[in-house]
Amino acid sequence: MNSEPPILFEHGGDLEKAALFAGCRPEEILDFSNLLNPSGAPPGLTDYLKSKLSGAFSHPGSGEPLRRKIAEKTGIAPEQILLGAGTTEFVHLLPQVRQVKRPVILGPTYGDYEPVLRAVGADPRFVLARETENWEFPRVEWERALVDHPDWVILARPNNPLGQNWPMGGLLAAIEKYPETFFVVDETCLEVSEDPKDSFWSHPMPANLAVLRSFSKAYAVPGLRLGYLAAPTDLVGRLKQARMPWTVSPLALEAGLYLLDQDKWVVESHQKNLEEKKRVYTKLSALQNFKTFSSAITAFTMKGLAAGFSSSAFLKTILKEEKILIRSLAQHRGLGDAYFRIGLRTPAENDRLLKVLEHRVRS
């Protein structure tokens, strides 16, 4: 395999770094490394934001209209909602107001949780699903970890990158049984999953729970940096005091109001994405030398089966030769360099990736 050092991508979608390596412009890269709504942003969003540009250079407002609109959609009280620059802001902010020393991370999962917790002196314990068990919920290890009374539990539901949807009943039971443990549930990927309504919104908000949501994936607008947190009122108040001011821009606040009115588009894109996901999964599953894992989200984790396969090297090869960017999972605890993730795109773009993968199998 290629002996050059791997290109390290901290997150998906880093087209500038990819283009520098590939020797092309960022817009020439076909990006499968991101996990976004394959349908793209809703129609009309660009024109709507253009009409709001006159306010883009003012100080951001309080976001009260957007908070109230989110409250109407979710049934959560407005005072239990905090707006932020995507869920990543809350992952960094929460340890500042809710002490954490002995957290549990349920994975394999999003890579930012561990370094953020270690940066505040915490020593995470990992409860990991395993390929040998078909990535099923690791119930025995989960129960053992909770019996030791961790001060935090953090997890993504549905999980990223593998796309499992951890059982709601078991999580609710644990949250009730261990009231001294603070549970952080990241629902960033829920709205690009097979069942976007399988949320904690349909249940009363426990005092030891914070739920994180993002506009980035559902509406394919990661650059707007917009998300929200739902938590008990006293915790939201402490987070407001601890955070930096003005983290959400005026245009992001306006975009949120527009996006929450796109219910018809959300339903239509969801159905279209489900159909395309089924088609692509069938094609991927037929590839030799690759194993594709089923997923509840609009992305698939794959494993190279050939001897010596390296997703880091494979990323470099197809980026250089095909201008296609995938997400290597070499740095993800519980996965490793044999694994990579691809996020779905349009049917024509997905077909291009399929042809590349088929060619690599034959060669």
Task: Please give a handful of descriptors for the protein shown.
alpha/beta, Aspartate Aminotransferase, domain 1, four-stranded antiparallel sheet, seven-stranded mixed sheet
The main pleated sheet reads as: 7 strands, mixed
CATH class of the largest domain: Alpha Beta
- What's the order of the H and E elements? HEHHEHEHEHEHEEEHHHEEHEEEH
Number of helices: 12
> What is the name of the CATH architecture of the largest domain?
3-Layer(aba) Sandwich
Q: How many angstroms does the end-to-end distance come to? A: 14 Å
Protein described:
Helix 4 packs across helix 8 (233-242) and helix 10 runs parallel beside helix 12. The chain folds into 2 domains: 15-41 and 264-362, Aspartate Aminotransferase, domain 1, CATH 3.90.1150; 55-262, Type I PLP-dependent aspartate aminotransferase-like (Major domain) (Aspartate Aminotransferase, domain 2). Strands 2-8-7-6-5-3-4 form a 7-stranded mixed sheet, sandwiched between helices. Strands 9-10-13-12 form a 4-stranded antiparallel sheet. Strands 1-11 form a two-stranded parallel ribbon. It has helices at 15-22, 45-50, 64-74, 87-97, 113-119, 139-147, 168-177, 233-242, 250-259, 263-285, 311-322, 347-362; strands at 30-31, 81-84, 103-107, 125-128, 152-156, 182-186, 209-214, 227-230, 290-292, 299-304, 324-325, 327-328, 339-343. It has 363 residues and is α/β, with parallel strands linked by helices. It is built from 12 helices and 13 strands. Helix 5 (113-119) links the parallel strand 3 (103-107) and strand 4. The radius of gyration is 20 Å and the shape is globular. The model has no long low-confidence stretch (mean pLDDT 94). The two termini are 14 Å apart.
